[in-house]
Design goal:
heterodimer, A: about 30% helix, B: alpha+beta, 5-stranded antiparallel β-sheet, two-stranded antiparallel ribbon
């Protein structure tokens, strides 16, 4: 069982995070606040756009990843008690590959791809994760490389 | 409305955006929906966290930057949307009362190869917090209409 410490997290460890259904209502609600481009907030204008209809903001599809990570962590007792992760220095290679439309359900996952020890912060390690959202047929819709700081074991307990 | 064509996104050109001030209530509201961790939801827990005080979710910071860019650039550029961002860094916490203006800088303009009529200018987005520390720089290629199209 994982303690949640950086040392005990394995490269290749993968978690299915669950799904989220995008609707016209939640797409427009997010975009009105944070991404008010016509093809995210106005179904009629969206129909005339390059996309031929309303699509979700890429930042909405990414924020839902975060929502599902926390929900999964809270469901999982070992992660919750561990709770040794939470702060991130950023991300790389965010790709919005296909338009996400109302009625689509996306299935999210995260997989550890790299671990980096930090000389500047010896009490923390960095985890890199490959994060994906796919539609019901398995088509990749969104992906990015996430970065997260995770607490390291006390020096005396590292093997 | 004046339209900013692809050709206007020259390297080094600065586009001022915002300001957008993020309140404590907005930090809580975003975090409750998308990032319900104690350091974004609870001031006391936040003061004991690595970030030493309440701060906005990094995804919220991205969303705020997006809002400023949409209002001040993309909706004036006949933008066709974006395809992602190669690199975004959360360098300093964004606190209630942050952030003031965002300066977007044209970074490079790789020519489109298979998309007649549009270009993909890349913009560099240094978002600065109220203490004038860089809180989040990012590089974003956007899809902009070419002036000649």
């Amino acid at each position: 069982m994982s303690t949640g410490y950086w040392e005990d997290i394995e490269i290749g460890a993968r978690r299915e995070l669950g799904s989220f259904t995008f609707t016209e209502e939640n797409i427009i609600a997010f975009a009105r606040k944070y991404d008010p481009q016509p093809f995210h907030i106005d179904p009629a204008a969206a129909k005339q756009s390059l996309y031929g209809g309303l699509i979700a903001s890429g930042w909405h599809t990414a924020a839902v990843w975060m929502k599902l990570v926390i929900a999964e962590r809270d469901r999982n007792a070992t992660w919750k008690s561990g709770s040794r992760a939470g702060v991130s220095p950023g991300f790389e290679e965010m790709k919005w590959l296909k338009p996400v439309r109302p009625g689509m359900t996306l299935f999210y996952s995260t997989e550890v791809v790299e671990k980096v020890a930090l000389h500047s912060r010896p009490q923390l390690g960095l985890l890199l994760s490959r994060n994906e959202a796919r539609d019901g047929e398995g088509t990749l819709m969104m992906q990015f490389i996430g970065k997260g700081f995770v607490e390291r074991k006390p020096p005396g307990e590292r093997t | 409305m004046s339209i900013l064509p692809f050709e206007d996104f020259t390297v080094g050109r600065v586009f001022p955006c915002g300001p957008y001030t993020v309140s404590k209530d907005e930090i809580f509201e975003f975090a409750r929906e998308f990032d319900p961790q104690p350091h974004h939801l609870d001031e006391e827990a936040a003061s004991k966290s690595m970030l030493k005080g309440l701060s906005a979710s990094g995804w919220h910071v991205c969303a705020i930057a997006m809002r400023m860019i949409a209002d001040d650039i993309l909706n004036k550029a006949a933008s066709r949307g974006g395809v992602g961002t190669p690199d975004a860094r959360w360098i300093k916490p964004v606190r209630p009362g942050d952030p003031p203006p965002l300066l977007v800088e044209g970074a490079e303009t790789p020519g489109p190869r298979r998309s007649p009529g549009v270009g993909f200018p890349t913009i560099h987005i240094p978002l600065v917090n109220a203490r004038e520390q860089a809180a989040q720089p990012a590089m974003i290629p956007i899809i902009a209409k070419r002036g000649s199209a």
